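Subject: sequence -> structure tokens, single chain

Hey, anyone have a minute? Need the predicted structure for the following. Not urgent.
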Amino acid sequence: MYPILSVIARGFFNAGLPSDIYVSGNFAYTTNSGLSKLSIFDITNPDTPVPRGTTTNGLNGAGGVYVKDGFAYVSSTKYCCYKVY
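Reply:
Had a minute. Here:
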């Protein structure tokens, strides 16, 4: 583990009102609670993240995100439910 003081910001992407982020391989999956969105960024080059896709989840607030076996699981911040993408 690295001390927090040695962390250097490399790249930036606007995630709106981010609620969660999950990194798997060369992709970062972010949820946005204000816009109820799941966004996917290619982080192959950490200095320049590239947006690869976005979808509105219809859950009235995107909360947590977890990715496994090619599926993204997104929970709601307001309801007791989730969606699978």
